[in-house]
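Human: Not sure, check this?
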Amino acid sequence: MPWDQDEGDHLLILQDKLNAYLRFIESGEVFQKVPDSEGRSIVIDLVGKFPLNQQAQFFVEKAKAAIEGAGFGLQFRLLRPN
């Protein structure tokens, strides 16, 4: 979804996804599904098709700080077209 369409809905979807990823990590389910992840640093790699707009950038920065506070990482990168 481009950020210039339904920005509020887009941010809520992103928030829900990040919360789901955190539940997966914090519950330990990640270690059951990906046994090789045990003992490694966990980073949520957020890959976007479109650059973040100002509001989305602000949200990702706040989410990154909260996720790092929980002992994990968050990074955003743009998907490169073929």
